[in-house]
Amino acid sequence: MAGERRHGCLTIWLLILLLWNLTLILTYTGCNMIQWFGDIGEPFGWYFPLMIALSVISIICVFALFGWKKWGFWGLLAVSVVKIILEIQAGGSGFAVLSGVALSMLILYGVLNIGRENKGWPQLR
To answer: Cα separation of 10 and 76, whole Å?
Structure first.
């Protein structure tokens, strides 16, 4: 669209989401997880590869939002739901993850809807 303008808060939040997911990927792949968390054993051998994949999908969705694609928002929402389910299955605190993920998505929805002519949500296609 001609005249697409991104509100500064939206840009900052998208950059935070991008950096957060890059940090997760580096943490899950570049660190010795056994040293940090102990031997997680076979039952959780699926956890880290799935979390890395979800972080990659999240990055793709953030770039989609930079390109004004509405599916980027819905993709991040879907990834958030899957992360909550995986965390609960791995024995984590579902409430802690739910509140963190919900807060993140609420902030994203909020920054997509602030501003007047710079409002992001109506510019998504």
So the answer is: 15
The tens digit of pLDDT for each residue in 12-51 reads 999 999 999 999 888 877 665 555 555 555 555 677 888 8
First to last CA, the chain: 9
* Positive or negative: CA dihedral 58, 61, 65, 66: positive
pLDDT band at 69 (very low <50, low <70, confident <90, very high): very high
Compute CA distances 90 → 36, 78, 113, 119, whole Å: 17, 18, 34, 38
Q: Give the Cα separation of 33 and 15 in Å (integer).
A: 26
Residue 52, both tokens: 């890395």
